[in-house]
Write a structure and sequence with these properties.
Layout: H1 2-15, E1 19-26, H2 45-60, E2 67-68, H3 70-86, H4 94-105, E3 109-116, H5 121-129, H6 132-138, E4 144-151, E5 158-166
Parallel strand pairs: 2-4
Antiparallel strand pairs: 1-3, 3-5, 4-5
Helix pairs in contact: 2-5
C-alpha cells in the first residue's frame, strides 16, 4: 500500500512538472570492500545549501546533524548524470548504489531522495518535507549523507539526488 501511495504521489508530481521520489535499503552488518571510496568531490553552492538546510531542519526537531561523505555525493552525481542522459527521474540502480555504499563505507542502512525542476534548495526541501516518504528519509536514523545537484545543460532543470546512510 505504501509503495502504491508513493507511486501515485510521484505521478501527480510529474504532472505538475516537478518530480521527486524516495527509496530505502538495508544492508548486512559485516560488509567487506574490495573497492575504494571516492575521497574527492567538489560541492557546488546548491549542494552545500541543501545539505545545510537538511541539517538545520534535523537539528530543529531534535535530531543529529548529518556528516557529508564525498563518496556518497559521487554516487549521487553519477545517478544525476544517468537521469539527465535518460531524461527520467527515478531510482534505477538504487540497489547497486546502496550496495556500493554498504560495501565501501560499511553502511548499515541507506535511503535515497530524488527530485528535479526545483529552482532553489528551499523549494526542494519543502517538497521533500511535504512528501511522507521523503520526509521519512530526511528524519531517518541516519548519521551521514551526500548530495548532488546537477543542471541539465539542455533544459536548465536541476536534478537532485540525496542519499542518506547509517554507519
Amino acid at each position: 500500500m505504501k509503495k502504491i501511495m508513493r507511486t501515485m504521489l510521484f505521478i501527480v508530481t510529474l504532472v505538475t512538472m516537478n518530480a521527486c521520489s524516495a527509496d530505502t535499503a538495508e544492508g548486512k552488518e559485516n560488509n567487506t570492500s574490495t573497492e575504494k571510496a571516492v575521497t574527492s568531490y567538489t560541492y557546488n553552492d546548491s549542494e552545500l545549501e541543501t545539505m545545510q538546510l537538511i541539517n538545520n531542519y534535523r537539528v530543529s526537531i531534535g535530531l543529529n546533524a548529518l556528516e557529508k561523505i564525498n563518496h556518497i555525493s559521487y554516487e549521487c552525481e553519477e545517478h544525476n548524470k544517468y537521469m539527465i542522459e535518460t531524461n527520467t527521474v527515478n531510482h534505477d540502480g538504487f540497489v547497486s548504489r546502496s550496495n556500493d555504499i554498504m560495501t565501501v563505507l560499511g553502511a548499515k542502512f541507506v535511503g535515497e531522495n530524488v527530485a528535479y525542476n526545483y529552482r532553489t534548495s528551499d523549494a526542494v526541501l519543502k517538497a521533500w518535507l511535504e512528501s511522507p516518504g521523503h520526509k521519512e528519509n530526511i528524519e531517518g536514523n541516519y548519521t551521514h549523507f551526500g548530495i548532488s545537484v546537477t543542471i541539465d545543460p539542455k533544459t536548465g532543470y536541476k536534478y537532485y539526488t540525496n542519499i542518506f546512510a547509517r554507519m
